[in-house]
Amino acid sequence: MTTETSAEIADPSLAREAESLVQRLVNDRAASKLAAGDPTLWGTDAEEEASARLSWTTLHETSRGLLAEIDALRAELHEEGLHRVVLAGMGGSSLAPEVITATAGTSLVVLDTTDPAQVSDALEGELDRTVVVVSSKSGTTVETDCHRRIFEQAFSEEGIDPARRMVVVTDPGSPLQELAEESGYRKVFAADPNVGGRYSALSAFGLVPAGLAGADIAGLLDDAAAAFPALASDDESNPAIRLSAALAAAHGNGAEKVVLADSGSGIVGFSDWVEQLIAESTGKSGIGLLPVPVENVEATGFATAGGDATPVAVGPPDGTASISTRGPLGGMMLLWEFATALAGRLLGINPFDQPDVEAAKEAARSLLDGPAGGPIATPAVVDGSIEVHPSGDWLSPGVGTVAEALRSLVAIAPSSGYLAVQAYLDRLDDASITVLRPELSRRSGLQTTFGWGPRFLHSTGQYHKGGHQNGVFLQVTGSPGADLDVPGRPYTLAGLQRAQALGDGQVLAQQNRPVLRLHLTDRAAGLVELVKAVQDLRAAG
């Protein structure tokens, strides 16, 4: 892996179009102002929010004090035989630790799901060797609170003191900090409150779980520190300036999608982390950049990107990529954070708020007041093990199969729109559903994203509601084989999962985003039937 963090614009025409934006950022001294925490860069309307969200630019320095604390706690845990780390967190609290540990080759069990089967799998691990990191900036994240309650009960049932197995990462003064201190939890790490969740990779939210799992977090900060001087410079060669200018120039020409593929970076899962950063930062006010992570540089949507998308290689330059970015993980995280914030300035949006995220949460909460996480709807069509539930009246008359319903959904997608596949299933046992992304992209000709619910609600969920209104949405839900009660709450995990799916679908439909929900009454059989339906759809094309 290269030790230098860089960004290269390989497309000559894009490089020419970006040049004026590069000069604008240089002349405005935008990079050095960003590095210094200047909140005025995004206009007066964003100034109040930005003033409390810019401490991430110096985390490579300010997070150093955490290293000794994390090392000391890890040594204590290992001395007690606690080697298995489970992370309960969503969005920025889970995506960064996951990519850090995956790249380092260390083991971390990540719970960013409400699927009862996936949570049950985590519970069936070696509880006598397990410590749980409960990570929530607000201290009120519903999914994370459920995980905490479920593991507390499981520890107690095994005769284990739950408080000795709980480590908390949260903002100072949050409800979670208060609860942890009252309950005598083993350790509370108070994070920097002036860092937004999606910019928190190098804060306690990224470092604590990754460090406890054995990743080299000191090296991560070293790599970010090495990249910082170039990223903070008001110079045409600044890779963050060049990257942000290229993305903004492409957006101005109608390429509002950013297709991300690894080209040999040595970093595992980087596109999933940067997806949240870009989508939640820029997808608002009816504009923004939609990240589309794909399988590799040969995948449909990358090598075949049209005028509505910019292919970006994560790693060495690739012949089909318009832009390539590379470097060690710490440097790459800081590069993309700087570039995303600067792109927000060029696009004229506030990169630090998320005005449309709360709507789906409110809808889910209201549905939890009823039984089973929402009303039981009558399907428009039943095809084998799959129920077809369209939003509104867009479904073509006479549709009788899943393949026909999918064809109707694709047909109403706007020109140069996108298709979002949202799977409220088990990320491990139901992983075969990921084949839908390339298959549907190939058949539809649309840029196609894939997200696991509810974790995507904390990333691309903002763009879906606040970004360009040219998407169509395929939800896939499934009947649980077994369920889990949430101690102290009047709902189960399956009920919460259902409410999250129906709530988000409801909000999308209210904003005239077409939603097709396919419910698998038998998950194993339904997944096979769904893949076959997509293949039939492609053959019919």
Automatic annotation (TrEMBL):
Keywords: Gluconeogenesis, Glycolysis, Isomerase. It comes from the Bacteria. One of its GO terms (biological process) is gluconeogenesis. SUPFAM superfamilies: SIS domain. Its EC number is 5.3.1.9. It holds the Pfam family PGI. One of its GO terms (molecular function) is monosaccharide binding. The keyword Isomerase applies. Pathway: Carbohydrate degradation; glycolysis; D-glyceraldehyde 3-phosphate and glycerone phosphate from D-glucose: step 2/4. It catalyses: alpha-D-glucose 6-phosphate = beta-D-fructose 6-phosphate. One of its GO terms (cellular component) is cytosol. Belongs to the GPI family. This is Glucose-6-phosphate isomerase. It comes from Actinopolyspora biskrensis.
